[in-house]
Amino acid sequence: xxxxxxxxxxVQILLQxxxxxxxxxxxxxxxLNNLNCRKIEENQRFESRAAKLPQGTxxxxxxxILPNDxxxxxxxxxxxxxxxxxLQCLIEIVEKxxxxxxxxxxxxxxxxxxxxxxxxxxxxxxxxxxxTVQSQEEKNPTKIVDTRIERFLKENLLKILEDLSxxxxxxxxxxxxxxxxMVEVELDSEVGRNWSEIVSKEYHFxxxxxxxxxxxxxxxxxxxxxxxxxILDENAKKLSIxxxxxxxxxxxKD
Length: 254
Description:
With 254 residues, the chain is α+β, with helices and mostly antiparallel strands. It has 7 helices and 5 strands, in the order αββαββαααααβ. The chain has a 5-stranded mixed β-sheet. A hairpin with a 2-residue loop joins strand 3 (115-123) and strand 4 (126-136). The longest helix has 25 residues, at 85-109. It is globular. The model has no long low-confidence stretch (mean pLDDT 91).
């Protein structure tokens, strides 16, 4: 097995920094000559892909493997669709608007748990949005946390989006655009971003520029429509993953 391990490979190389094109070509040629490999046949069989969630809401509950840890974790995930610049920007705008009220309502006001966060997800070309709450099972069981996360999405955040003034929306747009236009001061950061484009096979090496331009064009009405049709719709693809600590976990099978 070891003698044939490198017979077929898909080689991806990124060379970046203070070097000439000719030097980069020499390095690539040296690597390929030393590997002396053939292309992988039927490369599609080896690609990483995300599972497509069925429509509707589904729940996965498991007991924590830590018997003395009374904390539980609830992550509610909405799978939205295949990656695109526009979809990525719509999700990021919703995430930006959601960030402060999510912490204020679920963490400060309702005190559901010591950690509350929301983020957009990119899984092998598929975009989504998730909210995670870490709580004490005896104080706030996961079934209660799940209900309050859904109430936040369907009531609190929807009202915030609809009541957002034009000036407030522009402020949010400008804040995101400023982040996209921020100059990278370390080569490592730029290399990591470019390598991500290669691994994901999207190859948008000017992604930040494209996203800044797209964010500037998106309207508040488009964001509200996206939120209602892709996140709140009853046919949206939702998965609630609940890791339940000791306490009210008798309903969960080992």
